[in-house]
Request: fold
Amino acid sequence: MKTNQERIEKLRADRMLDREDFRALLTGLSPEEEALLYKEARSVREEIYGKEVYLRGLVEFSSYCRNDCYYCGLRRSNPACQRYRLTKEEILDCAKKGYDLGFRTIVLQSGEDPWYTDEKICDIVSAIRKQQPDCAITLSIGEKSRESYLRYFEAGADRYLLRHETASGEHYALLHPPELSCENRKRCLRDLKEIGYQTGCGIMVGSPGQTTDHLIEDLFFMKEFGPQMIGIGPFIPHKDTPFRNRKGGSLEDTLHLLAIIRLMLPYVLLPATTALGTIDPWGREKGLLAGANVVMPNLSPVSVRGKYMLYDGKICTGEEAAECRGCLERRIEQTGYRTVVSRGADSGLIFP
Ligand code: SAH
Ligand code: SF4
Reply:
């Protein structure tokens, strides 16, 4: 019988565990073992990334969505969601502001909004590429055909975030209506990676119906897929969705998973998410101290911030981008880490 300390050491050394060892780590750590897990995750993160925290500037450019995910405030069946679309000029303006504030990665995120045809997306991407040639452009606009992904890539997009949400088909069906499938989500991720994007998958921690077995399946999926980024944050109920009365994910469970993922995939880019900062006033900073190495402050115009409500209580909806940047920088300094002006970790250089 292994002790949990031995399991943590084994995970660090082998970057993988079997199902039963993962189960033990996911279910029964004492406070001392939990502290050891974070310490090991921090140490691995510092070996690779030092004290640096990468910044990604997030532009939430449309709150329209054709999908109906049960957990999300932007779902099409939510009449209370305030819908907006940013123009190309507004998006370029946000990207420029971000650049001036030191962001070298711009993330364009939205609901799945067919108003932005492939042609429009390509036009926006190539305009940012022209305006800021040294910036990484990340898209997070949902499930598309391989052909569309290829077109965006050729227009200049280099990274794509598409959380797989859960690797289990049965759990996926609890979170989504029948027209959405786990197979298609995974197909998208494979296409993105094959095309050459730096690809990000991820899950919500504590989403309705999630079991330890599902989490183990997620860890196996992440290991096998080998993403460059993993976005994880707690599930937070939204008052106008079918999951309004469900329990949200906890800070502890999210930190715990961040640390396990850091040990399993030492080089991965791991954001301390806004959702984590929403459930705890120091959630993002605690995330950085449990192995995360990226933060994604909001660059969207303040006039639309409060309309992109994936979940209730989302933080940072009132400040201008510059204030957000300054505030976050001061907060991060308190962890002993520091933000850097850099595209951060391009594949090939840093992913062995
Ligand atoms: N439409 C795109 C991008 C926007 S949604 C897509 O779905 O990929 C981005 C992420 O927000 C989702 O992947 C989901 O994991 C997360 N999200 C949605 N609703 C949430 C909620 N209630 N709590 C926490 N995260 C949520
Ligand atoms: Fe749309 Fe994404 Fe929300 Fe699903 S999670 S409803 S695809 S914005």
